[in-house]
Design goal:
single chain, 237 residues, alpha/beta, 7 helices, 9 strands, 33% helix, disordered N terminus
């Protein structure tokens, strides 16, 4: 990806400032949401909406061979309940290129449309569930892989994907890369009641904080860092 011009960078930060409230963090408006996969056999979308949730991020794909069996029913259920929704892809950087996995994700639920209720897709890049923490890639190679995914997704949708990770993984496996902080919204995982903690990669803030590994109506709890109007802006682009 070409580096942003100074003008473009300034414009982006101005847009960020407009998209989020000016209040101190402890007083900032937030929106409840959640994320799910097929592991959640039963999800109460209507109950979640009634309790105040307004968005859900749904697992669509993993690597280049796995399509989540619950994606379609989850996506339809979220839509029927009135939730803003989007898909996510669990990355396997050791198995194929970022381009290949982005295209697989886009072909199986990860796309974006400007209908006002679809979030840009999310790249879930985190600890390897069955091998080396950083998938055997160097820090430089990992950043290049992520850039490959991001560029492909953006070229096909005009939107930059959200990136989900933890501070520890991002620091360990990308060298705390700042390559994406002006383009890709950060979804930061940290299970705590004390806040999202250290923000990696020079992101000025987290867009979404995954604050608990459970949610009353299904999946994990997510907190959007802004008001509902800001969440809708994220969906509309």
């Amino acid at each position: 990806m070409k580096l942003l011009s100074t003008f473009a960078a300034v414009a982006l930060y101005q847009a960020v400032a407009l998209a989020l409230p000016a209040e101190p963090l402890e007083k900032r408006s937030t929106v409840q949401g959640f994320d799910i996969s097929h592991y959640q056999g039963t999800v109460d979308f209507k109950g979640a909406y009634s309790s105040g949730a307004r968005f859900v991020i749904i697992k669509a794909t993993e690597g280049t061979s796995y399509i989540d069996s619950g994606f379609t029913s989850h996506y339809n259920g979220a839509t029927a309940a009135g939730l803003i929704r989007g898909g996510y892809h669990f990355a396997h950087p050791d198995s194929s290129s970022g381009t290949t996995q982005a295209n697989f994700f886009l072909a199986h639920g990860g796309g974006w449309s400007g209908d006002g209720i679809t979030l840009p897709g999310m790249l879930d890049i985190e600890y390897n569930p069955s091998g080396a923490t950083c998938y055997g890639l160097s820090k430089t190679a990992m950043v290049a892989w992520i850039q490959d995914f991001v560029n492909t997704y953006h070229s096909k949708t005009t939107r930059y994907p959200m990136i989900y990770s933890t501070n520890d993984w991002w620091t360990t496996c990308t060298g705390n890369s700042a390559a994406f902080h002006t383009t890709c919204p950060l979804v930061l995982a940290r299970y705590s009641t004390a806040g999202p903690g250290t923000i990696p990669g020079s992101w000025p803030f987290q867009t979404i904080w995954q604050n608990k590994d459970s949610y009353t109506y299904g999946g994990d709890s997510d907190i959007f860092n802004g008001a509902l109007t800001n969440l809708k802006k994220l969906a509309t682009g």
